[in-house]
Amino acid sequence: MKQAAAGAASATQAVKADKKPFFSQRTLSHFIDFLFVLPALILLGVFTYYPIVKLVQISFTDWNLLNDTWKYVGLKNWQWLFAGSGAKYLWNSLKVTFLYSMGEILVTMVGGMLLALLFNRMTRSFGLMRAFVFVPKYVAMSSAAVVFLWILNTDSGVLNYLLQCIGLPAVDWLNQQSTALPSVLMLTGWRVIGYGMMIYLSAMMGISQEYYEAASLDGANGVQKFFRITLPLLSPTTLFLLVTTFLSSMKVFQSVDILTSGGPARSTEVFVYLIYRYAMVDFRMDRAATAAVMFFLILLVITVLTMKVSDRSVTYDS
Amino acid sequence: MKKISRRSFLTATGILTASAALTACSGGGSTGKAGAAASSAPASSAAASEAADPSKYEVTEPITITWWHALESQYDDLVADVVKKFNETQSLITVEAQYIGAYKDINEALVAAHAAGTGLPAIAVANTDYVASYGDSGLFENLDPYIEGTSYDTDDFSAGLLLSSQFEGKQVALPFLHSTQVIYYNKTMADANGWTIPEKIEDFTPFLAEVHKTAGVYGTVVPGWDQWYFETMYLNEGVQIITDDNTCDLGSDTALGVTSMIKDWCDAGDAYFATGTDASAAMRQNFYDQKTFSVMHTSSLYNNYVSKCPDFEVGMAWYPAASTGDKNSEVGGCVLGIPSKNDQATKNAAWQFLQFLCGKEVNMEWAEGTGYLPTRNSVLETDEGKQFLEKKPAFQCIFDNLNLINPRIQNSAWSELATTWKNYMEVIMNQDGDVNSNSEDMVTEIDEILADHA
Q1: Neighbours of B268 (CB within 10 A)
Q2: How far is residue A296's CA from residue B266's CA, in Å, rounded to a whole number?
Q3: Residue A254 needs a FRET pair 20 to 30 A away by CA distance; which of A139, A268, B71, B260 works?
Q4: B80 in contact with chain A, both atoms CB, cutoff 8 A
Q5: Average pLDDT, 10 consecutive residues per value, chain B (454 residues)
Q6: How far apart are CA A75 and CA A80, in angstroms?
Q7: Shortest Cα distance from A205 to chain B (angstroms)?
Q8: Cα–Cα distance between B269 and A151 in angstroms, integer?
Q9: What residues make up the domain containing B250?
């Protein structure tokens, strides 16, 4: 009897073992999936998240790039950034960065849209013109900035030569507070306007002609078609351009470094240039890290807010 | 498979992009603390006190070392010639010279390599500005044990130049290519109008006004991209810049007087304050084009000015003496040092090359080829030294005042202080800033910097 019971128990266990392996098929499948993404996660961890954590850590130290040792100083750097002499440079660079960003967004979106409307014809000559407008995007920023340095030169620049040809006075483009930032935006505009145009053009080509035909039958004119059909259906593209242009423009550095080095009198000192100055001119990695963490938080908040606001104003063509 | 909503995707993209921005900003930030890098760095101060042992500094195995310099392409042949001469005399050491960029670029690269503990050159030039911070941080090796161990004679160097490569009594570098502040002027224009550069600052102001009025050009240009060019005017008036109690006196009445004087020159159009990324090039071009009668610049560019001005003779003058009677200047140019985180074999090879670069044999070659000053006293008495003066008689004004060339202010906060000073000066001179209020703000900020470094 006992033997029979023991045999039955072992048989049950065997069945259970057959039915429920240590790893279920689903868990195993998930684990294999995870192994495939693990290399990417490791890279992301090492090159993105570890530096972020390290950066936060450095912001609480007194690390000077020249020294091998540092100690924790609590909130000293944060206090310096918000209440010390760092505050006015922080607000100044934020103001400059936002002004620059607004300028770049305006050029990319409004300029890109206008050019897209102009070049929205599939002829060979228009294709060639589109290429001309788009090519500057692929010119290295450093090369383009050096060329603009010459174009904007006060005494021997092409721009001032042209102004003087039409009887206007020469302008000290890069050395006046009022003209330095617009000068940097000239270079930016030249590079990004073609990109905005191409993105809008590709989106416009995706809009079904049936909408326009139906609108024509209803007697809509060109302006009405643009505002009632084109613009709403381009809103996902506009959102995409807005977010990507905003984030990339907030990180502007190279053009400012080459054209103005943040001057005159810090009038073009954008946020990333401020961070660079703390890190590589003053060697104050502690202050640079504090400013960088601050910058991250600002970008994060703005991005999330943009997403929330855009949900109410974007029209998806389903 | 669960679908990812457009909103989630866009939000995630935004966050990742923001993270990427942060990561991009954090380059080099992960070097960390003392740890491994520090352990490989020798304690310079400890080394100074070690007993001299010549065998410690011998090169025993073949080695190739790198020299980072800031000599632009026009000096390629000169650099190649000097390096070739050294390599030919060596059986074990091979030197490779690398042009890195301006002093600022070398500084950035050197500090980054030092922080990373890798990619360091065996030997590098450094602007005299950086001696204090490199000495203070131990970036440059203390050369005292090397000098003692190999019985290297440093007495022949000009005393001021030797001092300018020391930090707290330690010889952390050796004098290499040196210059000082001078005024280049259009001698042809001066002779035609019967002008001579005034020897006193109180005569200089009316002189600039007269030049402006008579010739319709700027009397001079004050370089604003580097405070070195104007700080000597403050020092000669008795301003200390950093006082003994570690505060800044650029807000004192004397300092405000100098600032107001320069501003008055600029406001009257008798001079301009050169700032901006192309300020140096623009200033030189204005001189070549005779749009300014004179410029304040470094003596090392004498060859350059002469070669670019074939239509008129270039004169060189000492800065006018201050109201105190002082007419000192400050040393400029660069020193040579050995990064301390290199291994001993590399440092030993670098020391051999460093001695050669600073030696009497090539001292005159550097001076003639570049426009920098000879750094050794004995060279001036040689035939070559006399020929140098015959070829460049304008240098007489420097040789007459060699003992007035002083070392730079040595303070680890100097770099930050200088940046702040330059920025405020730009606001005052070129953005119509008020002298008093801006100076007050500047001093507050500099005092904070000084306290932070104390």
Answers
A1: 14
A2: 42
A3: B71
A4: no
A5: 45 45 41 37 45 78 95 90 94 95 91 91 93 90 93 85 89 92 96 95 96 96 95 96 95 96 96 90 93 94 90 94 92 93 95 92 83 79 77 82 83 87 94 94 93 83
A6: 9
A7: 21
A8: 26
A9: 180-330+408-453
Calculate the CA dihedral of residues A204, A207, A209, A214 and round it to 10 degrees: -120
Q: What is the dihedral of CA B417, B421, B422, B425, to 10 degrees?
A: 180
DSSP B176: E
Note whether residue B45 is domain-resident.
no
Angle (deg, nearest 10), helices B201-215 and B253-268: 10
Q: Which of B360, B441, B445, B373 is nearest to B181 (CA)?
A: B373
Measure in Å the smallest separation between the Cα of B270 and chain A Cα atoms. 18
CA B141 to each of CA B43, B53, B128: distance values in angstroms, whole numbers, following the listed order: 9, 17, 16
Yes or no, beta carbons of B111 and A293 under 8 Å apart: no
Q: Of the candidates B358, B374, B399, which is a domain's last residue?
A: B399
Reduced to 3 states, what is the DSSP secondary structure of residue A213? Answer: helix
- Report the residue count for chain B: 454
Record the pTM. 0.80
The Cα B214–Cα B91 span in angstroms is 63
> Do B325 and B369 have their domain in common?
no
**A264·B112 Cβ contact <8 A:** no
Q: Classify residue B14: in a domain, yes or no.
A: no
CB contacts of B447 in chain A (<8 Å) are none
CA distances from A96 to A81, A213, B184 (A): 17, 46, 38
Burial tier of A277 (Cβ tally within 10 Å: 0-12, 13-18, 19+): buried
* Number of other CB atoms surrounding residue A5 within 10 Å: 9
DSSP H or E stretch at residue B331: strand B329-337
Q: Which chain B residue's Cα is nearest to A299?
A: B18
Do B367 and B388 meet the contact criterion of CB atoms below 8 Å apart?
A: yes
Q: Are A73 and A286 in contact (CB under 8 A)?
A: yes
What totals of helices (H) and strands (E) does chain A contain, helices first? 17, 0
Query: Is B30 part of a structural domain of the chain?
Result: no
Q: Which of B399, B421, B438 is the last residue of a domain?
A: B399
CATH tag for A91-282 (out of 3.10.450.50, 1.10.3860.10, 3.20.20.70, 1.10.3720.10): 1.10.3720.10
Pair B174, B194 in one domain? no
- A143 CB neighbour count, 10 Å cutoff: 10
CA pair distance A122, A124, nearest whole angstrom = 7
Of B345, B414, B375, nearest to B174 (Cα)?
Answer: B375
Q: Is the peptide bond before A264 cis (omega within 30 degrees of 0)?
A: yes
CATH of the domain at B279: 3.40.190.10
CA A138, CA B412: separation in Å to the nearest integer? 43
Number of domains in chain B: 2
How many Å apart are CA B194 and CA B66, to the nearest integer? Answer: 52
| Cβ <8 Å between A66 and B133 | yes
Non-local (6+) Cβ contacts of B301 within 8 A are B184, B284, B371
Rounded-to-integer distance, Cα A201 and Cα B202, Å: 67
Encode pLDDT of A203-221 as tens digits.
Answer: 998 899 999 999 999 999 9
Instruction: Look up the ipTM and state it.
Output: 0.76
CB B221 within 8 A of CB B271: yes
Supply angle C-alpha A167, A168, A173, rounded to 5: 150
